[in-house]
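User: I'm putting together a teaching handout on how multi-component assemblies are represented. Below are the sequence lines for each component of a complex, exactly as they appear in our records. Could you produce the 3D structure of the whole assembly as structure tokens, so the students can see both representations side by side? Please keep the chain order the same as the input.
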Amino acid sequence: MVKEIERNVFTFSILCVTWRLVLKCQWNPKNYDMGQNKSVIVVGGGIVGLSTAYFLQKEGHQVTVLDKSGIDAGASFVNAGYLTPSHIISLASPGMITKGLKYMFNSSSPFYMKPRLDFEFMQWAWYFKKSSTKEKVAKAMPVIRDINLLSRGLFEAIKASGDLGDFKIGDKGLLMVYQTDEARDHEMEVVQKAGELGLEGKELSMQELKTIEPNVEFNAKGAILWECDRHTTPPLIMQRMLEYLVKSGVSVHKNEAVLDMSLSAGKITEVKTDKGIYQADEIVLAAGSWTSHLAKKLNLKLPLQAGKGYRINTEANTGITMPAILMEKKIAVTPMEGFTRFAGTMEFSGINHKIRKERVEAIAKGVEYYYKGLHVSETDKNNARCGLRPVSPDGLPYIGRPKAVENLVVATGHAMMGWSLGPATGKMVTELISGNKLSMDIAPFNPERKF
Ligand SMILES: Cc1cc2nc3c(=O)[nH]c(=O)nc-3n(C[C@H](O)[C@H](O)[C@H](O)COP(=O)(O)OP(=O)(O)OC[C@H]3O[C@@H](n4cnc5c(N)ncnc54)[C@H](O)[C@@H]3O)c2cc1C
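Assistant: Of course. Below is the structure of the complete assembly, with chains in the same order as your input.
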């Protein structure tokens, strides 16, 4: 009898321990691995933060996302939605500084650097200039291709998983529409370089352009088509991702700003917000343009500037079915699910969300100039929004662990490609935290690289 009781107590204890482990690990039969289970705080709920949370929870980690906003605006909501393997040339490329200086006093130009006496900005501009050499651009090209292709595949895998319900990934490619021979020649150079890397761009005649985009009349000389590119509807995907994460047990704290972090013996011991104090095994800084301010709290230097861009949405029937970049004006046009979006401009004026009317107007005028008969309404212009691209000096993201802080991963600096690269970044941050093999070499994204 005693033996029987002892056996039952033993069995019960084993069951209790197992159940506690199951709860602790948020057990998922597909990918359970006790050794990998960690508590992780992700600071920032943009595409990079949410993609990170997505892959972390799939691995069984306990994830908390902290975001100072309502997670319904910002760069990840206002972008053009392109997935762009074709954008192999980073922003920091030969001639960009000259363009910046030329446009410095013209606040309606597509590329604008507000003149200001700010040491960090001047240092960043110096690093940007140092990164703008032919050799450095050429070295970055295969890296940009690889991370883009990885991320495009992950977007497709997320769609195929059904986790976010149904959403579209447009696969008609991306048009580069030009009005001048100069723009055409420039893009054909990119076609040649991309061709060497296995990405195909092809020149279209005006007749072919008409066949591809029959319901609009272009005021243009021609176009180049990148079949490797895709387009999506960011606000829809962000909303679905957020819903999925909450449903999957990720703790999402909106309107909660991280103010500080405590560091002891090379480890972050506390994350302090305006509402409370948190502890976790690992911290991921994915706070977009704000990340360098947070990194400073840990005595880390992360050269980063906010590159403001604007979007105008219209629900009017534009006839547009093909995403297109209007080359001379640097405007992105995207047919999204339920509306058309016009996006553009790169404005370096610090961290602010001030809407400059002249820049919104420049986007609307540019669109009306390229698409004959198209009119952007005053209401649509008045509803324009802006977002801040986190721009590193060489245009490559920062993904990795800074040496001085053991339990920190930095994930930002994606500039014009942050939407495209969100999933790849989230996947690789998860691989770092889980101690798994990395999907690609992340050495070029070292957050402590020298410029
Ligand atoms: C007009 C425009 C068009 C673009 N088009 C494209 C495109 O077609 N394709 C493409 O690949 N990319 C595009 N981009 C770039 C892309 O949108 C960005 O690179 C990307 O969204 C950056 O994502 P993120 O998650 O790093 O940052 P964000 O989306 O900015 O998210 C950062 C989050 O961190 C939060 N945060 C900041 N500080 C704190 C704090 N202290 N505590 C808590 N939370 C904090 C913020 O509230 C924010 O929600 C475009 C950008 C713009 C502006």
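A couple of points students might notice: The domain at 42-445 is CATH 3.50.50.60 (FAD/NAD(P)-binding domain). Residues 134-161 form the longest helix (28 residues).
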